[in-house]
Design a protein that fits this description.
Layout lengths: L2 H6 L2 E5 L6 H11 L3 E4 L1 H11 L2 H11 L7 H14 L5 E4 L6 H13 L6 E6 L2 H11 L6 H24 L3 E5 L4 H11 L4
Parallel strand pairs: 1-3, 1-4, 2-3, 4-5
Length: 195
C-alpha cells in the first residue's frame, strides 16, 4: 500500500465524559462510512484480561484496584489492532482513548510513523449532571453513585487536558452531545462533511 493512500486515511478520537454517547455515535459513523473500523480500548483490555497470561493478570490487578494503567497498555492494544486487523487505509474511530496527554502524544507519533495523518478529536460536550442521569438510567451494576462521581472526576483531571491538547493543535471538533442521538449524529456528519 502506498503512502499516499495511508495519508488519505482518517483517524478520529471520540472524547467525552462517561454517558456522553461515544460508543453510540461511533456505531452510527461506522454505518455512514464505506470502510471504517472502531477501536475500543476498553473492549480490548477486557479481552486481554481473559487471556490470563502475565500481561492479562497485571491489567486485571490494576483494574481491580481501580488503578491507572501505564500509557504503554493502550498503545500496545492500538498497535496490535493496526498490525493484526487493519489494512491501514480505513477510517478509524477510537472510543476509549486516548484519555491522557501521554497517550495522545504517543498515538500522534505512532500514526505519523506508519504514514497516517494525525487524528482529529470529536468532543461530545454534555453537562456532568446529564451524563450522571444517563448513567443512572442505563442501570448497569457498576454505575453506582460513587463510580459515576469517580468517572466524572477522572474526566476532569485527565481527559480535559487531552481535549485542550487537540484544541491547541487545531484538531478539535466540538459537538453538542446534550440532544437526541439523531441530532448529535447529524451535527457530527455535518462537521465532518459526511452525507
Amino acid at each position: 500500500m502506498n503512502r499516499r493512500r495511508l495519508r488519505s486515511a482518517k483517524t478520529y478520537v471520540i472524547l467525552g465524559v462517561s454517558g456522553s454517547g461515544k460508543d453510540t455515535q461511533a456505531g452510527l459513523l461506522l454505518k455512514a462510512l464505506p470502510k471504517a473500523y472502531r477501536i475500543s480500548t476498553g473492549d480490548s483490555m477486557r479481552k486481554m484480561v481473559k487471556r490470563k497470561n502475565a500481561v492479562g493478570r497485571y491489567v486485571a490487578g490494576v483494574l481491580s484496584r481501580g488503578g491507572l494503567l501505564p500509557a504503554w497498555t493502550p498503545i500496545y492494544l492500538w498497535l496490535a489492532e493496526f498490525a493484526e486487523k487493519l489494512d491501514g487505509d480505513e477510517s478509524v474511530f477510537f472510543t476509549s482513548g486516548p484519555r491522557r496527554i501521554e497517550e495522545a502524544k504517543l498515538l500522534d507519533r505512532f500514526l505519523n510513523d506508519i504514514g497516517r495523518p494525525a487524528p482529529v478529536a470529536l468532543y461530545l460536550r454534555i453537562p456532568a449532571s446529564v451524563a450522571a442521569a444517563r448513567l443512572r438510567a442505563r442501570g448497569r451494576h457498576d454505575d453506582t453513585p460513587a463510580a459515576i462521581r469517580g468517572r466524572v472526576a477522572f474526566f476532569n483531571e485527565h481527559v480535559r487536558p487531552v481535549i485542550a491538547y487537540y484544541r491547541r493543535s487545531g484538531r478539535l471538533i466540538e459537538v453538542n452531545g446534550d440532544q437526541p442521538v439523531l441530532g448529535v449524529s447529524v451535527e457530527i456528519k455535518r462537521k465532518l462533511h459526511l452525507r
